[in-house]
Amino acid sequence: MDNQATSSGWVPDILGNGYEMMHIAHPDDYSGQVRSTVIRKLSPVADIAGRRAVLYVHGYSDYFFQHEMGDMFVSHGYDFYAVDLRKYGRSLLPGQKMFQVRDMREYFADISAAVEVMRAGGVTEAVLLGHSTGGLTSSLYMADSPSPLFRGLMLNSPFLAWNLPAMLRRIGIPIVSALGRLFPGIKVRQKPDDGYARSLADWGFSRDWKPDVMPDPDAGWVRAIREAQEALRREKVKVPVLLMHSSESVRKGAGLEQYFHADAILDVDGISRYGRSLGPEVTEVSIKGGLHDLVLSGREVRETVYATMLAWLREHSL
Questions:
Q1: CA distance 28 to 31
Q2: What would the pLDDT profile of 81-97 be if each residue is shown by its tens digit?
Q3: Dist. CA 148–CA 126, nearest whole Å
């Protein structure tokens, strides 16, 4: 593949098929040098005078590889953009600790950089789409300091609540979060579970960037997640929100077949409970048979998810 940069800074992306990427340098943080990466595919049927776009933000232990979803938006006249956040995927630098974060607002700079790239590409209005922790980050961004470019927010199984027993939620998480203030690097051990990864076996992605078994987070990460979730109990998203999640969750250790038809990562009841209160205009859609990442579900489910997003966009003239 030819990786020679164009005069605009774009190079062909690893996905091929018209996808391009560009690294964005950011000021050093507590771990040293950081960068984000913007990936895009432009629609040939978009209105040059006022281009519409979708910007996608991935989840934890993840990066953008869901090209079928991107192609779907492009075929319907939207320029498609995605961001690999700092310390994830294409943005990972040698020696960095993968997925490290101390405050979810650190990612605002990555989203804002993508916004500037989109504006430079002629985008005049856009919708933000976030998955899992990317859904949490996107919600916080839209409640805290949104760009006026974004006229709507779409959420794919956002991490709005912990999928833990009540005792751990009420006592364990606050304790670990408190430790995270002073000792952010302490690892929080989890029981290994590759059931979700096995349900994604038909999808091609890099195991170096998306390990089959999620790495143990650290106390700083737990603190960042908790504080973002608590902030969203107080702050509200002012644009229309599409809240999508699976119709059911599956607990770790369940039979493998159950992993193919449910959310194996988050509690869908928690997503629903807190998602409905994100703002004054929330449309909630429960997807029967959906995986945690709804657009990696079986084909019929994916088609339902795509149709749901397109119908919602039309309904809101986005």
A1: 7
A2: 999 999 999 999 999 99
A3: 9
